[in-house]
């Protein structure tokens, strides 16, 4: 049924012509690769080349007894074709595959054509998408994906399309130019607002701590909140300086600014961990615990530990200009941060460090929530039983324990753009959330706050002051 095909080979262009009978009883299978071009499927093929699966439906609808199948594999880099204006994705291996059967166009197939584009493991920053070339798109044509379904795999991506034309696999960066600019605008505006609200929050905590008489545990908590909000204030301020000076600063200045930004981020993570430790001591270790100069020692850890990490990183020259690029190497943003040569430091000190903190804080938050619910059910704790206040306390607690930062681990894959927007908005507005939470929690019903949120009664009627 498959007659011997004729091969046409030019520079960057490889074509296979096959005469296929209308009475074909099985699907037509063809392999292709950027280097070897298209050929009939060999039984010994190990899957390193791409595959084309043409269903029988195509040939049964043909009027002629024998039709010619033309499969073309071309290199877009050598031909300079199939270039879309403002294209953000990169064509896999610069390879475009064209398929025609007979002289008429084929569309609306019930049994789709399947093209398997072979590739290794793709970077986490890209998303494959099956597309075809539409000459009517824009002024010079462009890529479209309607009628094609993308099925990513470990060794290749399968494209199932209901028509025949020129196809390719487009590797779209998770962060394109327009998304990056929008995120930078949102982050800059949010950080500017967060800086102002961080100042309000610190002033409010200091005022409440000095104006009203609280027991020592509540005063310690207020001191913790002041330091956490202070680290958020410095982080937002460092980001604003970074976004304004990056790309124009002297290399040494950029290195200092990158180290300062890293220090502020580590301080924020460390104070988040200390909030979790305090919650553990108050809700789990409820027996009387007195530590001399407790808050001063927490400050030594919260502000001192990041100095050691940043100092070591600075000695080995880890800070400098870092560029965020698209797949076609277009720079979309400059930052003074950890350089590309030392990204392992970023994964260890930022991703790994926060991952451990978040796991610990999640476990502590679960224990504290369970204990608080059991005490509320037994009537041991009074006040703040309204659902909206309970929800507000829970939301504020999640902000204090760094739940919004955990969204960074979800910024991969197809939904990365939406998660990036959510991550940027929530973290830039974290200072506002904490400010509202503290105002509702501590003011103006300060007496009620002291009585309702700082008492945990043990089953043996031993009362321990906590919050």
From TrEMBL:
The keyword Transcription regulation does not apply. Residues 187-442 form the G-protein coupled receptors family 2 profile domain. The gene is Adgrg3. One of its GO terms (biological process) is cell surface receptor signaling pathway. The keyword Chloroplast does not apply. Residues 30-177 form the GAIN-B domain. This is AGRG3 protein. The lineage of its organism: Eukaryota, Metazoa, Chordata, Craniata, Vertebrata. It is found in: Cell membrane. It comes from Urocynchramus pylzowi. SMART domains: GPS (SM00303).
């Amino acid at each position: 049924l498959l007659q011997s095909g004729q091969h046409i080979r030019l520079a960057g262009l490889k074509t296979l012509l096959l005469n296929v009978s209308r009475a074909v009883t099985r699907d037509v299978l063809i392999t292709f690769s950027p280097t070897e071009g298209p050929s009939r499927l060999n039984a010994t093929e190990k899957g390193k080349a791409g595959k084309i699966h043409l269903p029988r439906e195509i040939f049964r609808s043909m009027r002629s007894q024998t039709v010619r199948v033309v499969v073309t594999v071309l290199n877009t880099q050598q031909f300079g074709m199939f270039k879309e204006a403002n294209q953000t994705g990169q064509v896999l291996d610069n390879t475009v595959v064209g398929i025609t059967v007979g002289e008429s166009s084929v569309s609306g197939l019930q049994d789709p054509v399947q093209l398997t584009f072979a590739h290794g493991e793709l970077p986490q920053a890209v998303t494959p998408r099956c597309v075809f070339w539409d000459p009517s798109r824009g002024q010079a044509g462009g890529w479209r994906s309607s009628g094609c379904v993308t099925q990513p795999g470990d060794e290749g991506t399968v494209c199932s399309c209901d028509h025949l034309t020129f196809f390719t696999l487009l590797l779209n960066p998770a962060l394109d130019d327009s998304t990056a600019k929008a995120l930078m605008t949102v982050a800059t505006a949010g950080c500017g607002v967060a800086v102002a609200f961080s100042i309000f929050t610190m002033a409010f905590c200091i005022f409440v701590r000095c104006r009203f008489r609280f027991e020592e545990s509540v005063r310690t908590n207020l001191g913790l909140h002041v330091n956490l909000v202070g680290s958020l204030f410095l982080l937002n301020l460092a980001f604003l300086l970074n976004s304004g000076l990056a790309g124009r600063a002297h290399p040494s200045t950029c290195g200092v600014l990158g180290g300062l930004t890293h220090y502020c981020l580590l301080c924020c993570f460390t104070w988040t961990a200390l909030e979790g430790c305090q919650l553990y001591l108050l809700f789990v270790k409820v027996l009387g615990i007195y530590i001399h100069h407790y808050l001063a020692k927490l400050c030594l850890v919260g502000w001192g530990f990041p100095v050691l990490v940043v100092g070591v990183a600075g000695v080995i020259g880890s800070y400098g200009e870092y560029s965020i690029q698209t797949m076609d190497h277009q720079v979309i943003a400059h930052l003074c941060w950890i350089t590309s040569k030392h990204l392992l430091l970023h994964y260890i000190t930022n991703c790994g460090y926060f991952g451990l903190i978040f796991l610990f804080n999640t476990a502590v938050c679960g224990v504290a929530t369970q204990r608080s619910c059991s005490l509320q059910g037994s009537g041991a704790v009074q006040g703040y039983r309204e659902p909206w206040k309970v929800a507000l306390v829970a939301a504020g607690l999640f902000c204090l324990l760094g739940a919004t930062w955990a969204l960074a681990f979800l910024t991969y894959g197809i939904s990365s753009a939406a998660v990036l927007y959510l991550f940027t908005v929530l973290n830039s507005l974290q200072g506002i959330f904490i400010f509202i939470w503290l105002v509702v929690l501590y003011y103006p019903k300060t007496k009620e706050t002291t009585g309702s949120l700082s008492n945990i009664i043990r089953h043996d009627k031993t009362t321990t002051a906590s919050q």
